[in-house]
Automatic annotation (TrEMBL):
It comes from Actinopolymorpha cephalotaxi. Pfam families: Cupin_2 (PF07883). InterPro entries: Cupin_2, QDO-like, RmlC-like_jellyroll, RmlC_Cupin_sf. This is Cupin domain protein. Gene3D superfamilies: Jelly Rolls (2.60.120.10). Residues 54-109 form the Cupin type-2 domain. SUPFAM superfamilies: RmlC-like cupins.
Length: 164
């Protein structure tokens, strides 16, 4: 049986190194923009997250993108619908759009990638985040403002942040 390849809008190679990628302080962690909507013509975005124990997201869902977590180091507790999972180094979590989920770092430190298909979440992170140098003077948005910003990016916040 012949193999079928599906071609997306993404049409040019993207090669970056850590020093050339933007990074923002986001909800208590550091997020490096590994591949963004402009890089991939909107096909996907890859973000690298680093955070200490307690770095977390509120319970939320994405209206327009699937999200994949790949844990590189450390451990996350991921709440997915009614399930609560412990995901350690090498663990992968695939989340379809429209499914409520959240995460919290439970190890002393963690580093993980998120893949968003299609892109768009990267724009939310860029809007909410602050440059690492400005993070001490620019506090994260309060929950009501975060909810408003999220809604503009097709994200519904449906519950409080997870606790470690």
């Amino acid at each position: 049986m012949p193999m079928t390849y599906v071609s997306g809008a993404f049409s040019r190679p993207v090669v970056t190194d850590p020093d050339s990628q933007s990074a923002v302080s986001f909800l208590g962690g550091l997020v490096r923009m590994r591949a963004t909507a402009p890089d991939t013509d909107g096909a996907f975005a890859i973000l690298e997250h680093e955070g200490e124990r307690g770095y977390m997201s509120p319970l939320h869902l994405h209206d327009a993108d699937e999200e994949t977590f790949l844990v590189l180091d450390g451990t996350l507790r991921v709440e997915v619908g009614e399930r609560v999972l412990s995901v350690g180094s090498g663990g992968l979590t695939l989340l379809p759009r429209g499914l409520a989920h959240g995460f919290v770092v439970t190890s002393p430190q963690a580093r993980f990638l998120t893949l968003h298909t299609p892109a768009g979440f990267d724009r939310f992170v860029a809007e909410v985040g602050a440059s690492p140098q400005d993070s001490a003077t620019k506090p994260p948005p309060d929950p009501a403002e975060l909810t408003r910003i999220a809604a503009r990016h097709g994200i519904q916040i449906v519950g409080p942040p997870l606790l470690p």
